[in-house]
Amino acid sequence: MDSKPRLKPRRLRPGATLGVIAPAGPGNQEQTAAGIAWLEQAGFRIKPGTTVSQELGYLAGPDALRAADLQAMFADPAVDGIICLRGGYGTMRLLELLDYDLIRQNPKVFVGYSDITALHTSIGQRAGLITFHGPMVASDMGKELPLYTWDYFLQAVTAPAPLGLIANPPLAPDPAFIVPGTAAGPLTGGNLSLLAATLGTPYEIDTAGKILCLEEVGEAPYRIDRLLTQLSLAGKLQAAAGIVFDVCADCETEAKPPSFTIAEVLAERLGSLGKPVLINLHFGHTADKATLPLGVNATLRPEDGGLVITEAATTA
C-alpha cells in the first residue's frame, strides 16, 4: 500500500462551484434534477460532469469516461468541490485508471458514500486527501433531505473547525458502546462490502491505528457475519484502534429464521477484540446521515458520548 501524508482541501464558501459526477451507476434523471436544484437553491453553483447523463447497463458510462470525468473535476480550477451523484456499482473498476498525483496536486472537497467507498480508500491512501463520507445528489438531495443530514454536510465542508461529537438525530436512540473503552486515531472506512472487496488488491484498506467506521444496507445478518469474518481473517479488525458500526439499513428485514439479529452478530464478531466498539450511529444508508471526514483525527470515549471528531477537515 502506498500511503501519502494527509492533505486537507479548502473549505467550501458561499457561491462555491460543485462538480457533480457519476463514478459508479447512472442516476434517476428526476432525482438528479431535483438534487441539483436543491444545491443551487442552497447557494452553490453546479457544474454537471459528462457522466451525469450517461447510462451503460449498470454503469454511468464506460470506465475510461468515468475516470476522466472525475479527474477533470479535480483538474478544473473553476471547480471548488466534487459531489457524487449516487453509488450503485462501478468505482472498483476505476482504481487503476486514476492519476493520484493529479488528485493530490488539486486537493478539493470530495463527497459520497456506498460504492464511493472504494474511491475514498484509494484517494485517501494514494493521494493522502481527506475526503467526506456524506450525502449524494440523486440519492439524498434529490429526495426529501432531512435537516440533520444537511446540517452535518454543511458543517463538515464549510466550517474550518472540528465537527466535535457526532450525535444521532434528535428522535433516534443514542449510539451505544457494546465494548466500552477509549481509542484515538484517524477515521477510515465506509461500506462494509466495498472494504471487503479491496482485500488482496493493491488498494486494500489500511486500518492500523485507525478508527474503522463501517456501514451497510440490505444485508442479512449472516452476510454481515461473513463480511466481518473476512475483515477479521485479514487482520483488519484487530489492527484498528476502535470500531464504529452504523444503523444497518434494511438488514434485519433480510433475515430468515433461524437467524441471529444484527446486534447479536456485532456482539459476537466484534465484542472479543479488546477495543472500543460503538454501534447504531447514523452515517450510512439511512435518510438521516452524518457526514464523516475520512482521514482526520477522532476519539471514541463513553464519557464524551461516542465518536468525537477532534480535527478540522478543511483549511480556511
From TrEMBL:
This is Putative murein peptide carboxypeptidase. The lineage of its organism: Bacteria, Bacillati, Bacillota, Negativicutes, Selenomonadales. It is an enzyme of class 3 (hydrolase). The gene is ykfA. Belongs to the peptidase S66 family. Keywords: Carboxypeptidase, Hydrolase, Protease, Serine protease. SUPFAM superfamilies: Class I glutamine amidotransferase-like, LD-carboxypeptidase A C-terminal domain-like. Residues 19-134 form the LD-carboxypeptidase N-terminal domain. It comes from the Bacteria.
